[in-house]
Structure formats: structure tokens, C-alpha cells
């Protein structure tokens, strides 16, 4: 998902299109129904929009997002996407679509020009999450948090007492250290952090901003 959003630099007009019961639109040979899995819809979407992905389309499962710099460009992008949907007999659910928006809720994020935010419903879910009582509950909590980890500075370090416990075969042990990490992670996730998209050199019409890259390394992690 992180790579998907790196393509949005310079976009100001957004559209989201949701397939109507998308998983049911995958054509399956009779007798092969039990062999079908979730990746089937991913493969289909990538094949249908392969020409436009990385150019002005992002697909995630059965969701499609179109991103454009100006309205005139957007109209051409939309025409091409709708043509592909028609050619492949794919149907959309109009009530879940939004066209030519400056700000849009799509791909479980809130997206606007130059900025990406976490979905407020997901933030509320994290905020209301009770202390886990077993490994399964802890894994579910971390699964949700990990989806938004790029929004939280030092995420790996904050979550370390929790992720370490997932690796152990030892009995469940929810002590003060893990309770503190749990609350700290919830606080970081609920602070409504915002990511700014970089002004990449490929878009010459936009003002250049020097990018500073910080390299961090410790016993637990390494990254930029």
C-alpha cells in the first residue's frame, strides 16, 4: 500500500470507483469455484488496468482510484477507465463511487492534494480497542496498527514490547511494560498524523523542494 501512494505526487483531482460485488464478477469455469481465492480479483484488476497503473490509476482489491493533475486531464483518464470496465463487463456500485473530488476517502485513507491521512473510522477503532487478553487479540490489534505504521514515527520501537511477545512460545504475559507500549501506540495512532507527498523531480511544472533523507539504525531496525 505504501508504494501505491508514492504515485500521487502532483495530483489534485481524485475519483474512486467501487466494483459491485467485485469478487463475484471474476469469471470462473464451472467446477473450479472451490479453487478461487482473494488474489483472483487482484490479478483481474491488474490485468484490466495494466496500461494505466503507475500512470493515473491505483487498484487495490476491487477498488479503483483515478488521480489527475487538472480537470481536463481527469476527464480523459475517466473515459479510459470506463472504457476498460465496459470492455471487460465489469459493473460498479454508483452509490460507493465519487467523481472529480479534491478530497476523497479511498483505499482506507483520506487523500487530498499533497496529503494523506488515516481513515477516521480506523483511528476510532484503535482508540476504543481494549487491552488484549491473549495472543490472538494482540495479533489482531497489531495487524490494524501495522497497516498505518508509516504514519507513526518510531513505530517499530514503540511497538517492540508487543511484537516481541508474538514471537514467544511462553504463556501470555501482559505486564506493565506491554500495557505502556499498548497505550503509547494507541496515542500515536489517534493523534491524527498526516503524511505529505514529496515534490518529485519528474513533475517539472511544480516547485522544487529539497528532500532530506535521515538514516536511522539500531539493534532492532534500519531504515530511512
UniProtKB/TrEMBL annotation:
<feature type="domain" description="Reverse transcriptase">
    <location>
        <begin position="43"/>
        <end position="107"/>
    </location>
</feature>
<dbReference type="InterPro" id="IPR000477">
    <property type="entry name" value="RT_dom"/>
</dbReference>
<dbReference type="InterPro" id="IPR043128">
    <property type="entry name" value="Rev_trsase/Diguanyl_cyclase"/>
</dbReference>
<dbReference type="InterPro" id="IPR043502">
    <property type="entry name" value="DNA/RNA_pol_sf"/>
</dbReference>
<dbReference type="Pfam" id="PF00078">
    <property type="entry name" value="RVT_1"/>
</dbReference>
<protein>
    <submittedName>
        <fullName>Uncharacterized mitochondrial protein AtMg00860-like</fullName>
    </submittedName>
</protein>
<dbReference type="InterPro" id="IPR051320">
    <property type="entry name" value="Viral_Replic_Matur_Polypro"/>
</dbReference>
Amino acid at each position: 500500500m505504501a508504494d501505491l501512494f508514492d504515485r500521487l505526487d502532483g495530483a489534485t483531482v481524485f475519483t474512486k470507483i467501487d466494483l459491485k460485488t467485485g469478487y463475484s464478477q471474476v469469471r470462473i469455469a464451472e467446477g473450479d469455484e472451490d479453487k478461487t481465492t482473494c488474489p483472483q480479483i487482484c490479478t483481474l484488476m491488474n490485468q484490466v488496468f495494466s496500461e494505466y497503473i503507475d500512470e493515473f490509476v491505483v487498484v487495490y482489491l476491487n477498488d479503483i482510484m483515478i488521480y489527475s493533475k487538472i480537470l481536463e486531464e481527469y476527464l480523459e483518464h475517466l473515459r479510459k477507465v470506463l472504457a476498460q470496465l465496459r470492455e471487460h463487463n465489469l459493473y460498479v456500485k454508483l452509490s460507493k463511487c465519487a467523481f472529480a473530488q479534491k478530497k476523497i476517502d479511498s483505499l482506507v485513507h483520506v487523500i487530498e492534494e499533497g496529503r494523506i491521512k488515516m481513515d477516521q473510522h480506523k483511528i476510532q477503532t484503535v482508540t476504543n480497542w481494549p487491552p488484549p487478553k491473549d495472543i490472538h487479540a494482540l495479533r489482531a490489534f497489531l495487524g490494524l496498527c501495522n497497516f498505518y505504521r508509516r504514519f507513526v514515527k518510531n513505530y517499530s520501537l514503540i511497538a517492540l514490547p508487543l511484537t516481541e511477545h508474538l514471537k514467544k512460545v511462553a504463556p501470555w504475559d501482559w505486564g506493565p511494560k506491554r500495557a505502556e507500549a499498548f497505550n503509547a501506540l494507541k496515542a500515536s495512532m489517534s493523534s491524527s498524523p498526516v503524511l505529505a507527498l514529496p515534490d518529485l523531480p519528474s513533475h517539472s511544472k511544480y516547485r522544487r523542494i529539497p528532500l532530506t533523507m535521515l538514516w536511522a539504525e539500531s539493534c532492532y531496525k534500519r531504515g530511512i
